[in-house]
Specification:
The complex is a heterodimer of chains A (324) and B (250). Chain A contains nine helices and 16 strands. By secondary structure, chain A is α/β, with parallel strands linked by helices. In chain A, strands 5-9-4-1-2-3-10 form a seven-stranded parallel sheet, sandwiched between helices. A five-stranded parallel sheet of chain A has the order 13-12-14-15-16. A three-stranded antiparallel sheet of chain A has the order 6-7-8, with no helix packed on it. In chain A, 56% of the residues are buried. Classes of the chains: A alpha/beta (324), B alpha/beta (250).
C-alpha cells in the first residue's frame, strides 16, 4: 500500500513545492506504515527524478511521451488513477496549484475517492480521516472527514516544511496507456516568460497599492524586490488602473500566494486583498494611515509615507546585505 | 448553433462575518446576504457577452444550480443579468461530488455544448465541481481558463500556466473552468433585466440519489494574531533587524 504523490515538472525540473509534497507524503506514509511513490509525467531526467528520493520517495514512476508535454486533464487523470490502483494507494497527494485543481477533482471521481482541496496541515486523525482546509478565503478553517477508503488531497503551497529523509529511490519507467484519440485539446499557441521569478514561487514578495500614488513610483518597489530576490505584486485597483499587469494582482479573485514575507506598500488592506495573502508567514505593512485595516493582519508595520520609507528601506537592505 | 450552461453556486457575500453554530458543526447563516459566487458571476457575464456578440451562433445561456427554494433569489439575479433560463435541482448541496452528480444529471437530460464553471467558490474554496462534472460526464475539461472567445463559429480558450498562457481549442462538449480574467467585471442587471427575470423560465427538477464522499465535521476560526509590532518611520533599520533576527524571513 502506498501514498502516491503526483510530482509535476516545469520544463523537466521540480520546484520547492514538489519537495514539500514529498515531505508531506512521507509524514503521512510513516503514520500509515506505507511507502511513498512519486509519479512524474513528462520528460524528466533520472538525475532530477532521483532528487525525490532525498525527501522520502521510495519508488518513482516516470511516464514519458511527447504528447504529454502539455496538460490534458483526462489523460493525466487516467495515468495517475492507474498508478494509484497498481500501487494500491491509500492517499493520493497533489499540489493545490492550477494543475492540482484541474486533475484532483477528476481523479476523485475516477477513484471514487473523497477529495479535500487546499489542505494546510497533516491529517489530525487517520481513522476517521480528518484533515483541515481553509474556507472563506482564509477567514476560517474546516475539518473535513473523507469517508472513502481512498483519499485525494491537494496541499496548499508553503504550508509544510521540507524535510530531508534520504531514501534509496527506485525509478521505474512506465508506458503511457493512452492513444491519440484520448487527447481532446489542441494547443494553438504558447505564450510564456521563462526567466521571471513567478509570484507563486517567490519566498519574498514586495507589493504596492493605490497608496503608491502612481506607476512612476514603482521603481522603489522593483528596486527593493531586486535586493531581496523577491517577486512583485499589486492590489486590484492598481492592476485595474493599468499601473501593473493582471499577473501581479494578488487577492481573492487574483493570485492567492503564501510567501514567507509579504511587504505591503501603500495597501489599505481590503478584505479581498487579505484573502490573497492570508497564509503568508510574515506580513509587513507600510501605510501613512495608522487606521488602515492592513495593520490588523500585519506582523510588523511602519506608519509613514511609502515614498519616504521605501528609499530608506532600500538603503537599510543594502547595508544589511553588505554586513552579512 | 450552440448552447451554453453556466453552473452557479450561492455563497455568503464577502462582508459577512463568519460564525458557527451547534458547537462549530454548522455555519450560522442567520442574517447572511447571499450572492452568486463571484467566479461563477464572472463566468456568466462572459457567457452572456459571448452570446450577444455571436450573431445567433449561441442560442441560449442557461444557468443551473443545486439548492433548495431559498436560493431562488440568487438564480433570479442570474436571470436578471441576462441568462435565458434556469434549472434548479431541488437538493441539498452536501458536498462537491453530490453537487456534480446532480448537475451531471441535468446535463445528460439536456444538450449543452459548453459548460462553464467558476474555478472555486468563495465559501468552501473547493476547486472541484467543474472538474468532477467533466469526469462524471466523460468529457474534456480545461481549467484555469482566463479567456473564452468565439470567432467564425470556432471556440478558443486561454489557459493560464506558470509564467504565461496557452491558447487552446477543444472538442465540444467540454467543461471550461474559469478563473479571474474571464470577464473584467460582473454584468449589472438592467432595469429591463430585473423585470424580465421574474417571468423567465426557472425549471425545478428533483435531485437524484448521490452519496457525499466527504463531510464537514467541525469548523474553526483562525487563532487571533498577536498585534502588529510598529516600527518607527525614523528607524527603518530596526525593521530589517526584526525581519532577520526575529521573524527570520530574510
Amino acid at each position: 500500500m502506498s501514498v502516491l504523490v503526483y510530482t509535476e515538472n516545469w520544463d523537466g525540473k521540480f520546484k520547492k513545492l514538489t519537495f514539500e509534497l514529498i515531505s508531506y507524503a512521507n509524514e503521512i506514509a510513516s503514520k500509515l506504515n506505507m511507502d511513498v511513490t512519486a509519479l512524474s509525467i513528462g520528460d524528466v531526467s533520472d538525475d532530477e527524478l532521483q532528487k525525490l528520493g532525498k525527501y522520502g520517495a521510495k519508488k518513482i514512476l516516470s511516464v514519458k511521451d511527447a504528447k504529454l508535454n502539455n496538460l490534458e486533464n483526462n489523460v493525466y487523470t487516467s495515468i495517475i488513477s492507474k498508478a494509484a490502483t497498481t500501487t494500491n494507494a491509500s492517499v493520493v497527494i497533489l499540489s493545490n496549484n492550477n494543475t492540482g485543481k484541474a486533475i484532483g477533482p477528476r481523479l476523485s471521481v475516477k477513484l471514487k475517492a473523497g477529495l479535500a482541496s487546499g489542505v494546510v496541515d497533516l491529517p489530525s486523525s487517520y481513522e476517521p480521516f480528518i484533515i483541515k482546509k481553509k474556507i472563506f478565503s482564509g477567514k476560517a478553517f474546516a475539518n473535513v472527514c473523507i469517508k472513502t477508503p481512498v483519499k485525494v488531497v491537494t496541499l496548499f503551497q508553503n504550508s509544510f516544511e521540507i524535510k530531508v529523509s534520504e531514501t534509496n529511490a527506485v525509478i521505474e519507467n512506465i508506458a503511457m496507456d493512452a492513444n491519440k484519440a484520448d487527447f481532446k485539446t489542441t494547443i494553438i499557441d504558447v505564450n510564456k516568460q521563462t526567466n521571471k521569478l513567478l509570484l507563486t514561487d517567490a519566498d519574498i514578495v514586495v507589493s504596492g497599492g493605490r497608496g503608491m500614488r502612481g506607476p512612476e513610483n514603482w521603481w522603489a518597489i522593483e528596486e527593493l524586490a531586486k535586493l531581496l530576490d523577491a517577486a512583485t505584486a499589486c492590489s486590484r485597483p492598481v492592476s485595474d488602473e493599468g499601473w501593473r499587469t493582471h499577473e501581479e494582482h494578488t487577492g481573492q479573485t487574483g493570485k492567492v500566494i503564501a510567501p514567507n514575507l509579504y511587504i505591503a506598500c501603500g495597501i489599505s488592506g481590503a478584505i479581498q486583498h487579505i484573502a490573497g495573502i492570508s497564509s503568508t508567514k510574515c506580513i509587513v505593512a507600510i501605510n501613512k494611515d495608522p487606521e488602515a485595516p492592513i495593520f490588523e493582519v500585519a506582523d510588523y508595520g511602519i506608519v509613514g509615507d511609502v515614498m519616504t520609507v521605501l528609499p530608506e528601506l532600500i538603503s537599510a537592505v543594502k547595508e544589511f546585505k553588505n554586513s552579512i | 448553433m450552440i448552447k451554453i450552461l453556466v453552473c452557479i453556486s450561492n455563497v455568503p457575500d464577502t462582508t459577512t462575518k463568519i460564525k458557527f453554530a451547534n458547537s462549530n458543526k454548522t455555519l450560522d447563516s442567520v442574517g447572511t446576504q447571499w450572492i452568486i459566487n463571484p467566479w461563477d458571476e464572472l463566468a456568466l457575464t462572459r457567457a452572456i457577452d459571448i452570446k450577444d456578440a455571436s450573431n445567433g451562433y449561441v442560442e441560449t445561456v442557461t444557468v443551473a444550480h443545486v439548492g433548495l427554494i431559498d436560493s431562488e433569489p440568487t438564480i433570479r439575479k442570474a436571470l436578471a443579468m441576462g441568462a435565458d433560463d434556469a434549472i434548479r435541482v431541488n437538493a441539498i448541496a452536501n458536498d462537491s461530488y453530490s453537487v456534480a452528480m446532480q448537475l451531471a444529471e441535468v446535463i445528460k437530460n439536456n444538450s449543452f455544448d459548453i459548460i462553464l464553471c467558476g474555478i472555486e467558490s468563495s465559501d468552501y474554496n473547493n476547486s472541484t465541481v467543474g472538474g468532477m462534472l467533466s469526469e462524471i460526464l466523460e468529457i474534456p475539461s480545461v481549467s484555469s481558463v482566463s479567456s473564452i472567445t468565439i470567432e467564425n463559429d470556432k471556440v478558443q480558450l486561454k489557459r493560464e500556466i506558470d509564467g504565461g498562457f496557452e491558447t487552446i481549442s477543444v472538442a465540444s462538449p467540454f467543461v471550461a473552468i474559469a478563473q479571474k480574467g474571464i470577464a473584467k467585471e460582473p454584468r449589472i442587471p438592467s432595469m429591463r433585466g430585473i423585470m424580465t427575470a421574474r417571468t423567465k423560465s426557472l425549471q425545478v427538477v428533483e435531485g437524484v440519489q448521490a452519496d457525499a464522499l466527504v463531510e464537514y465535521v467541525e469548523f474553526e476560526l483562525p487563532v487571533a494574531k498577536s498585534s502588529c509590532k510598529k516600527v518607527d518611520a525614523e528607524n527603518v533599520k530596526e525593521l530589517i533587524n526584526l525581519l532577520h533576527n526575529e521573524a527570520k524571513v530574510i
